[in-house]
Design a protein that fits this description.
With 211 residues, the chain is an all-alpha fold. The chain has helices at 4-33, 38-41, 55-64, 82-110, 120-142, 152-157, 164-188, 192-209. It has one domain. Helix content is 69%, strand content 0%.
Length: 211
Amino acid sequence: MADPDFIRVLLIVPGALIGLTFHEAAHAFAAWKLGDPTAKQLGRLTLNPLKHLDLFGTLMIFIVHFGWAKPVPVNVANFRHPKRDHLIVALAGPATNFLLAAAFGMLIRIMPNPGSLSGTMIFVYQIVMYGLIINIVLAVFNLLPVPPLDGSSLVHLFFPARYERQYRLFARAAGFLLLAVVVIGMLTKTSILGAIINKPVGLFLKLFAGL
């Protein structure tokens, strides 16, 4: 009999690869269109997952159901409106995950009731369901206003320029704090981030798939 954990990994992989790859490629594309070719020159304007995946961040998808890929390098000096354009680039990732989630949700709505499925179709249904959930989680998680997540760009947009150095120090510390929260959640089996994002994730599941 097949190992349930191995089967679960097989079910999660397609949605995770699609979600993380499109998320980072969207950042790269938005930056390029706004005048910054840095990511394109480094080969990040691509849908090749190997160019985007971060080993630890990908493992987190399987362990705690949210994670990250390698950040797309952005040179804000190439933007005409640095803070505004950086915000657009940041939001491009979560927006793409929401679009993917909407597509997966549409598939869920048109597929037969899972109770009437059997064999391969059950496997397909579960892959689509994981794709829906993972993309919603990626979008919601990355919109949290905490550096280095995408949502922090909204905070940065309104941060006074004279405190830029202080903001960068805060951003560096916040990244370690976020990682600590993730690790503590894994060790204690009590996910603080999960408690924060579960409700909005549930709302989007209902919106996209009626679940």
